[in-house]
Design goal:
Elements: H1 2-17, H2 20-52, H3 62-86, H4 91-96, H5 98-104, H6 109-141, H7 146-171, H8 177-198, H9 203-212, H10 218-222, H11 228-255
């Protein structure tokens, strides 16, 4: 466990020693703030219509009309920011030649992969931590339900874990950071829009594609529902992606 934490600490230091961490956190904060302000404006307008009887909804719920859509929009932020986090994880090690030092150290492939994953996950958690400020305003001046907020953040953490684990695998396949970033973004986009394609297919194919969609499983979390099938999907996705990364690192060890 100490080896894993040491690698995670090294990865985290490398993120903050370069502009990556600051760019990712800053970009995420700006986008989240933009989504928050627009949804808050929409919620405020619906509240006025409901209170004044101008054809708006009879009741408004801050969780359903603001927080839940806000969490669902975060997937857009992850689509653009997380490839920046994972693209250099192995690609830079291969390019600079430090991968040989890492592979000859008294570390197992699993320790290396899990350590790098945890380092990236901590950075992602810090990125999500910035967004808590916006949610805090809602609790300070309103009365939202806290359970959907907690489950929503849990869903975002699991979704981010899926993206990060998949990005690590892609990065382990190439020496070029740009190529790793572009391929990672393309794969992320495929899992993000696959449920759109499902609307043009038959019932069986549609069910399969909807299940494979990484965003489809976030909906219940954003509504405050924790369903076992969604947990199984996210955990299995992370475990399988990390397994593929371990195999890629092992093949690199043998080639070296």
């Amino acid at each position: 466990m100490s080896n894993i934490l040491a690698i995670a600490h090294k990865e985290l230091k490398s993120y903050f020693a370069s502009p990556i961490a600051y760019v990712v956190i800053g970009f995420a904060a700006i986008l989240f703030g933009w989504f928050f302000i627009n949804l808050l404006y929409y919620f405020d307008r619906m509240s006025l219509q409901a209170g004044g009887g101008f054809g708006g909804p009879e009741t408004v719920n801050v969780n359903e009309m603001l927080i839940s859509p806000l969490f669902l929009n975060v997937s857009v932020i992850l689509l653009f920011t997380l490839p920046l986090v994972t693209m250099r994880t192995y690609s830079e090690e291969k390019r600079s030649g430090t991968i040989e030092l890492l592979l000859t150290a008294p570390l197992t492939d699993v320790q290396i992969v899990v350590g790098k994953f945890l380092g990236a996950l901590v950075l992602y958690a810090a990125m999500m931590g910035v967004t808590v400020v916006h949610i805090g305003f809602l609790f300070a001046f309103g009365n939202p339900e806290w359970q959907p907020v907690l489950t929503g953040y849990l869903g975002l953490l699991l979704m981010g874990g899926c993206f990060l684990s998949l990005g690590l695998f892609v990065s382990s396949l190439t020496r070029n950071q740009i190529i790793a970033g572009m391929i990672t973004f393309a794969v992320f986009l495929m899992f993000w829009v696959i449920n759109w394609i499902a609307t043009f297919t038959g019932p069986t194919t549609q069910a399969v594609l909807n299940y494979l969609s990484i965003t489809e499983h976030l909906n219940d979390f954003a509504r405050g529902v924790i369903d076992t099938k969604h947990l199984v999907y996210y955990v299995s996705f992370i475990a399988f992606s990390l397994f593929l990364t371990v195999r890629a690192v092992d093949s690199e060890r043998w080639r070296g």
